[in-house]
């Protein structure tokens, strides 16, 4: 009987998805040996405010990750998502180092770690002590693995939104297909009054 296919999940607001997201996804696939990621666009993240409509963020994510299984995620919290997918056999959640540093503040982090393993992409310059501090708080730190990102992470989505709203060129930070969606749908314009959540 063949082993069940490993499910690797990469979630976020993707407001907008940038080259750092794409690089993290690419490296995670190599590290985990999976052919495809489930990319989940959070419709209404429980931990941050987003003003860009979910359907627009979904289209940007589809443009950024054309080879992945991109879906809209209606769950506000990761633990709710995992409870809704009991068919996923020990899935792997792909995170960046910043997300992992905030992991103890997630809703039911130990339950998340019981239901899923974590694969955390680290970048040069990120303090190892911050990662070690989180590991020390976890009951099952063996369910966390780290891998190094091959390329430096660009500006955060919040910074890119602010620059776009000021009319600045951020073409080097965004996949060309994402920039095309932003232009076509006239996203991140000053008149739209976007909030500046991360």
What does this structure look like?
The protein has one domain (8-189): Rossmann fold (3-Layer(aba) Sandwich), CATH 3.40.50.620. Helices cover 37% and strands 16% of the residues. It contains eight helices and six strands, in the order E-H-E-H-E-H-E-H-H-E-H-E-H-H. A six-stranded parallel β-sheet has the order 3-2-1-4-5-6. Helix 3 packs parallel to helix 5. The N and C termini lie far apart (44 Å).
Main traits of this protein?
single chain, 198 residues, alpha/beta, Rossmann fold, 6-stranded parallel beta sheet, 8 helices, 6 strands, 37% helix, globular, disordered C terminus
SSE blueprint:
Elements: E1 8-12, H1 19-32, E2 38-42, H2 54-64, E3 69-73, H3 78-84, E4 92-96, H4 97-101, H5 109-115, E5 117-122, H6 128-137, E6 144-148, H7 157-165, H8 176-185
Parallel strand pairs: 1-2, 1-4, 2-3, 4-5, 5-6
Query: Helix/strand-derived class?
Result: alpha/beta
Query: Can you give the mean pLDDT?
Result: 90
How much of the sequence lies in strands comes to 15-25%
Main β-sheet, spatial strand arrangement: 3-2-1-4-5-6
Which sequence of SSEs, written as H and E, runs from N to C? Answer: EHEHEHEHHEHEHH
CA-based shape? globular
CATH class: Alpha Beta
Radius of gyration: 17 Å
CATH architecture name: 3-Layer(aba) Sandwich
Total helical elements: 8
Count of separate structural domains: 1
Low confidence ranges: 192-198
The number of E-state strands comes to 6
The CATH superfamily title: HUPs
Taking the alpha carbons of the first and last residues, their distance comes to 44 Å
- Largest β sheet strand count, sense and barrel closure: 6 strands, parallel
